[in-house]
Amino acid sequence: MTWSQKTDERAQAIIARYPDPRSATMPLLYLAMHEDGHLTEDGMREVAARVGLTPAQVQSVASFYTMYKRDRTGRYLVSVCTSISCMLLGADDVLAAVSEETGVADGDTDEDGLFSVEHAECIGACGGAPAVQVNYELVEGVTPEQGKALCAWLREARPEVVLGDEMQELFGGQRSFEWGPSETAGAVGPFPAFEPYGTAKEGR
Amino acid sequence: MAWRYLKQVEGFWVVFRQMFKPRVTTPYPKVKRVKPQRFHGRHVLNRYPNGMEKCIGCELCAGVCPARCIYVRGKDNPVDEPVSPGERYGFIYEINMLRCIFCAMCVEACPTEAITMTQLFEMSVQGREDAIYTRSELLMSPDGVVPHPQPQSKFNDLGELTLADGWMRATAAAGRAEYQGIRHWTPTAGAGHRPPEQGQAADGVPETEEESEG
Amino acid sequence: MSDEATPGMVKITIDGREMQVPAGDLLIAAAEKAGTYIPRFCWHSRMKPVGLCRMCLVEVEGPRGTMLTTSCTMQVNDGMVVHTESDVVKKAQEGVLEFLLINHPLDCPVCDKGGECPLQDQTVSFGPGESRFVEEKRHFEKPIPISDLVLLDRERCILCARCTRFSEEISGDPLIEFVERGSGTQVLTFPDEPFASYFSGNTVQICPVGALTATAYRFRARPWDLQAAESTCPHCSVGCRISVQSSQNQVLRFQGVDVDSTNQGWLCDKGRFGFEYLNSPDRLSTPKMAGDDGLQEASWIDALDAAASGLMSIIDEHGPGAVAGIGGARGTNEEAYAFGKFLRSVVGTGHLDAQIGDGLEPRLLAAPADRGLIGDLEKASSILVWGPDLKEELPVLYLRVRRAATELGAKLVVAHPRRTGLDDVATHTLRYRPGAGQDLLRRLAAGEGDAGAALAALKEGPTVVITGLAGLTEGPDLAEAVAAFGRDLPDATVLPVARRSNVFGALDMGVSPALLPGRASAVDDGARATLSGHWGADVPDGSGRDTAGIIEGLEAGAIRAVVLLGADPAVDFPDPARASAALAGAELIVAIDMFESVSTSMATVVFPALGFTETEGTVTNLEGRVQKVSRLLPGPGGARPSWEILEDVATRMGGSIGATSAGVIATEIEKVAPAYAGATWDALNTAFGRDGIVVPTADATQPIEYVPVDRPSAPVQRDLVLHLARVLYDGGTTVQRGLSLAKLAAEPAVYITPQDAHRLGVADGSAVRLSGGNGSAELTARFDDSLTPGAVYLPFNLGISVGSGLEVELEALA
User: Fold this and answer.
1) pLDDT at B5
2) In this structure, are C509 and C633 located in the same domain?
3) Nearest by Cα to C187 from C218, C149, C148, C156
4) Each residue of C365-406: pLDDT tens digit?
5) Of B10, C252, C585, C692, which has the highest C-beta tally within 10 A?
6) How are beta strands C57-62 and C80-83 bridged, if at all?
7) Do A92 and A162 belong together in one domain?
8) Which of A64, A92, A107 is the last residue of a domain?
């Protein structure tokens, strides 16, 4: 496998930002992930060759971080926090509800590639527990019923860009606090890897 | 001079007197004495009820043997037909019975209760090399029968091969009072009840009806 | 202890004992030197600390109170007060062990490490005795092969990262790494990228549990039924110290022994697993004599008689100059000495050589001026490696150079016709077309162009210059010129290298036309007279032939008989076909060997010899370090030591080499060879121990005429030149007769630059015909962009030979 010319140019630009090519490993992994939809073995090999590491070392980095998806991932990634605050306020039920509604077990992706469901460790929204993320956009205070409704809405509406504020309005409960203006492109839209953070102009 | 002959008759008196006392000898080998419960006889390599060998070839018995009479070598279990549970099985297992001092340290060291001792003590052989017992002599058959060294002899007491030795009786589940009467696979040859030793029977629990002949 | 602090030392208190330790030492190391053992798993004295396993927690008193800290990451400070046995430390150790044992399976009885396992030992010494963990342990597939030599059992792994750190820090091929995280963390390779490192076996040795095990040793024995003897690795001339371990008269493994001067604990896989050939069923165990169809088993008496009478009739008919000897570099110094003495004094010939046409000028190897030590690399500011790819030929020397370049910050200049293992860590990489090395050297010496920066780096002393034969198609002149260049650098030492295991010992024992035992010159009449005084026989002058000369002599009919001692010129000579044809024409070949080989198949008499682990003696490594090899096993059947066979043949020829035991020969060497004075077995066994004795070169420095640095390279006519070089796993006996290593030898292929391939219409992986000086072969072409255009590379001794000529032709096959 080789990368498209555009991806290749981006990779070159990212590597050029660092004194040592291996520093570019993590941004390049995002690049590889977006190139193939998820992080493939070939993608990791490609990154390894570019940054001067062995594939084993790249795999080590890629497998440490849960946001590098090494398996096929659906269009909407629903992450249900199951760490302690959320767990105490019924996150397990939310997770079960989400699984039931989407028909996707924890850690799995459905056949059509629409939904992936996972349980997440603390996503920093303990004040609004139980919290759910869709494509890393946060919804707080989600009950099992709201979780189901959220998934049903995603299936029906198929929003191009998932926005936290919108989902919070429709399905959220108590918020921990006002999070401020959100990225209009959604959390997975801009790649902080390509541009200094906050200057990204490009959508997904 | 009759008193001289009297002395000789006095000798017969000893014989005469003994004729009315109980006999202390037994007509071995037709009749065998009951051996102590913790008698150390020949070894046996056991199997699990499903036929798998218990020996994993770990060589702890060989390592602990004070007479250095055990030779074990392990080998990878064949993937398709494993001989024992786990990765390794006893590929070579030999005990030189001429060197063995029947201390049962091997039994004590065995982590899987694979090697135990029976009550069989008749191990005369016709050549020194025959005294080296290999897997074919030591290993019980899949149905739990221990091969007898002189299978054709009419004086065999096969019961000797079915009774556990002392160490296993003292430590194995089957030897403990709380397991009394519970049918349990024992480390010795064959499954079945094992009589508790003296003092082991729990109060109020009747002795097992099924005594091992031994 | 006095109150005066020695410079460079600091005073610390461990468990109430005050002691002085070197400043900058890690607490765990300082404590160990001072006699306090702090338990550890992840810390290894030859690697950087990570503080992962937490086993080495100790209490250190500080301004903010007494705190638990990992002693492997804490440097000693003046006045430091440490407690290693307090209740708090004990509780910490018990806790750490209880944690480590949560997931560690208790399958010690079937684990290869059981009995020598640091986790077992330290659990018994420092552990809590029982665990509160009753849940299910984590499960993985039981051992998965991560390479052909190493198995990984992830259930047993305690995640100390010793193996991953070794492969990254020490050997430089990080093919294993931690994968996943949290309770899922495990060591793994990348899918389809096995842990194919030349040093993978070291991870098995340093693994503190049985997570990494070696296929060659798996389930062969338990540690307590191993007999061990310390010895010296027989696979190359680095002379790594090893522990030979056997059970039931079979060698079962080699372990590296940590010696500062040579291997620092590491071994290459060829050394570590290259013991299996000793147990091979193919070992010769009876003498053999040529019969109607091939070699037939013969009695010792017949074979000895045949060898002696054969040699005598050739001496009678054609004079002693018709007999030659090749070999001696595979065995001990004692065997080499007996070989040289047999040929020089009993036969009376000066044609003898321990190198098989693939070495350097013997006088340069035996006693060069300004010879360096491997240890010099530790303090070198710059290093020049111009010779073989050290990773392929002298792997542990590669580790030492790599350590100097990465860990110790030396500037490394590597010159080789293609990519070498050291290029990744080199400061300057110089490539040249085989045959044009002299031009590059001239440019380097003059600092021209891109070589200017390299020269500037090399001028920063102290410098170590490692020189040797980069490829077999190039003559030995280049290495001499590099040595001459090295001598001219300020503050430089030169380390000429050759690969074959005891070639340095054999040369020191005079198995070379130019050298007498003890590095005396064979052209020096005085030295010859002294030697003949010792031997009571005339010593031939230094005009004898080396191996190439002997092959020529065989072709010309000047040499009619050859004695081979553990040598297979029909395979090892750079042009095997030529050597094979020459040997086939010999009237008499007497071979002493462990195996039948191509050369012995042409022999008249073959004697079975005892090999490594079966004979006692000394060997000399590439820096002139004399080390002991030990005898542990009886050897197969009727095999006998080589010196004994030579003595028996000598007796039947009416002479004697006075060899009644290896020890007697050693005593004689010490007396006859001036440089070896003091290097007795006793001294090696006791006072000097595992470091051995470096035989001084200063007195015996050979007056060799170094090839001038600025000599032009010979012109090349054809478009392509051949780079012919050895690889670690080749067709050699010690590799091929062992089950584990034999399968590692690569498929032969010819490597070509993409540019040349394009010009010749060759695709990567396509079939080509390579024609060289002596023969041609069909093989697969592979692209290698590290070669200089106009050069092709063929690995030596992988079953394909086209002769040793520099110029070759290559054509694509349809």
Assistant:
1) 80
2) yes
3) C156
4) 988 888 999 999 999 999 999 999 999 999 999 999 999 999
5) C692
6) antiparallel
7) yes
8) A64
Q: By a Cβ cutoff of 8 Å, what residues of chain C touch chain A? A: 168, 173-181, 188-193
> For residue range A2-43, what is the model confidence (pLDDT) as tens digits?
788 988 988 998 899 999 999 999 999 988 988 888 899 999
Report pTM.
0.91
Amino acid letter, residue A139:
V
Residue B178: predicted pLDDT:
55
C173/chain A closest Cα distance in angstroms: 8
Look at A32-46, B105-119, C463-477, C552-566 and tell me which has the smallest mean pLDDT: B105-119
Backbone phi and psi for residue C629, each to the nearest 5 degrees, phi listed first: -115, 145
Residue in chain B closest to C108 (alpha carbons) equals: B58
CB contact under 8 A, A57 and C191: no
Local confidence band at B169 (pLDDT 50, 70, 90 cut-offs): very low
Same domain, C374 and C317: no
Interface test with C, best of B60, B89, B91 (most C CBs within 10 A): B60
Q: Which residue of A has its CA nearest to C189?
A: A56
Is C511 in the same domain as C654?
yes
In a domain, C455, yes or no: yes
B56 to chain C: which residues are within 8 Å by CB? 109-110
Q: How far apart are CA C326 and CA C448, in angstroms?
A: 43
Residues of chain B with C-beta less than 8 angstroms from the C-beta of C142? 87
DSSP string, B118-177: -S------SSGGGGEE-HHHHBPPTTSPPPPSSTT-TT--GGGGGS--HHHHHHSGGGSG
Nearest CB among B62, B73, B86 relative to C110 is that of: B86
Q: Looking at the structure, do residues A82 and A148 belong to the same domain, yes or no?
A: yes
Domain hosting A98: range is 76-171
C142 closest CA partner among B188, B108, A170, B86: B86
| Separation in Å, CA of A64 to nearest CA in chain C | 5
Domains and CATH numbers, chain B: 43-147 (3.30.70.3270)
Query: What are the tokens at C298?
Result: 């013969």
For an interface test with C, give the residue of B53, B56, B58 to mutate (most C CBs within 10 A): B58
Q: Does C202 have pLDDT greater than 70?
A: yes
Domain membership of residue A204 (yes or no) is: no
Q: Do A54 and C175 touch (CB under 8 A)?
A: yes
